[in-house]
Design a protein that fits this description.
Order of helices and strands of chain A: EEEEEEEEEEE
Largest sheet of chain B: 6 strands, mixed
Strand content of chain A: over 45%
Strand content of chain B: over 45%
Mean pLDDT of chain B: 89
Oligomer: heterodimer
Number of helices of chain A: 0
Number of helices of chain B: 0
Mean pLDDT of chain A: 94
Number of strands of chain B: 11
Low-confidence stretches of chain A: none
Largest interface: A-B, 24 and 24 residues
Chain lengths: 113, 113
């Protein structure tokens, strides 16, 4: 089982560039989410989705866009990259919050110069 | 105030020691509590899941919830070098009409052979 697959694993961007972080899951999970993880800050929720066509903001949504056109995919778009967005990004999915665990991908390490 | 507070450590113990990892939470309405383990350069994975108060044991791991003091703990008996990882506590809370998971900042544990 692939679980949650994130691409790319590593990315370097220049300030002002845009890019999309890809996330796909093959577990037919309705709930998907994006977190960023920074030293001393822990995991912080960026955006989440409870099903295709439904998205909502988390704790730190500014500078990021999401859409959910299929159950399997939940891409995260950086509109105009800033050095403050240098982080490790994790996508996670779950059958149901809070009764089921979150399954995480292995992360995308993003550096913005 | 963050929903969940966790001492980031780091914590270094000799092999075979008993390890105690702790979190406090702010909302007495919380009922589900999780511990995730994160190895270096990997995504977090669910380790233990408890509902309401009391203890839950799984092999060398015991999760404990004290609702009167809003304190959650993870004990690791006979710690092994393979237990070296960052441990994150988490609890779901209802935000914007949907449940979200909020994480502590994580405690980095090193078990020295």
């Amino acid at each position: 089982n692939a679980g949650v697959t994130q691409t790319p694993k590593f990315q370097v961007l220049k300030t002002g560039q845009s890019m999309t972080l890809q996330c796909a899951q093959d577990m037919n999970h309705e709930y998907m989410s994006w977190y960023r993880q920074d030293p001393g800050m822990g995991l912080r929720l960026i955006h989440y989705s409870v099903g295709a066509g439904i998205t909502d903001q988390g704790e730190v949504p500014n500078g990021y866009n999401v859409s959910r056109s299929t159950t399997e995919d939940f891409p995260l778009r950086l509109l105009s990259a800033a050095p403050s967005q240098t982080s490790v990004y994790f996508c996670a999915s779950s059958r149901q919050i809070p009764n089921s665990p979150l399954h995480f991908g292995n992360g995308t390490r993003l550096t913005v110069t | 105030q963050k929903e969940v507070e966790q001492d980031p450590g780091p914590l270094s113990v000799p092999e075979g020691a008993i390890v105690s990892l702790n979190c406090t939470y702010s909302n007495s309405a919380f009922q589900y509590f999780m511990w995730y383990r994160q190895y270096s350069r990997k995504g977090p994975e669910l380790l233990m899941y408890t509902y309401s108060s009391g203890n839950k044991e799984d092999g060398r791991f015991t999760a404990q919830v004290d609702k009167s003091s809003k304190y959650i703990s993870l004990f690791i008996r006979d710690s092994q070098p393979s237990d070296s990882a960052t441990y994150l506590c988490a609890t779901p809370y209802s935000g914007a009409g949907s449940y979200q998971l909020t994480f502590g900042k994580g405690t980095k544990l090193s078990v020295i052979p």
